[in-house]
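To whoever is on call:

I kicked off a structure prediction for a single chain this morning and the downstream step that reads the tokens threw a length-mismatch warning. I double-checked the sequence; it's 223 residues and nothing unusual in it as far as I can see. Pasting both halves so you can look.
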Amino acid sequence: MITIRDLRCGLLDIGSLDIEPGITSIIGPNGSGKTTLLKLLAGITIPESGEILVDDRSPRNVETGWVNEFPDRNILFDTVADEVASPLRFRRIPCNETSRRVTSHLEFMHVTHLSTRSIRELSGGEKILVAIAAAAIHHPDLLVLDECDSHLNESRAQETDQLLKETGARYIIRCTQQMESAARSDRLIYLEQGRVIHNGSPPEVFSSLASSAFYPLSWRCGL
């Protein structure tokens, strides 16, 4: 369980919030504090006050994979294979084991055909898939994704959601402006002006947002 108590950081003001294992999507208007919350959960930012615990550990003591909203900000190395291998090399995993795991992981992510390509030549969607592959290759307990599905079409987003479930990460937390993606989550958190307004399953949260722009078009059309 991820527990948040008396959290204050910039705009964010969250008295109490529990996040269960699975895929959790954070939605809400621009400027509502979504990215700030993700950075706090990933341990990138330290709260001004309050506490976040991931299975009774501080975020900085948890194996975490992070994917930035802007693909180029994820890149450290030139080729796809080197980028995906980087988390293992930083951990000094032996070369033979690293090569084996990279080959297997590229197949798992359906991007083997990109392995020798320069990342700078890839499309935004391809860069995001490579960034997710790199973030997940070391089997993190927590995957944090900042609007990465904005670079994917709906078909690719559905496929990626399935792959995320198969990474083995105990917690997958993302913010998204794509309500079709949010609807496939286990849990939704709706933020507004730094506060949690709604928290629950997609049907529970969307029932309170039926007259807003934060309602899946497929649900509105009865698809």
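Update from on-call: the warning came from a stale cache, not from the record. Cleared it. Sanity check on the structure: The CA atoms of residues 145 and 174 lie 4 Å apart.
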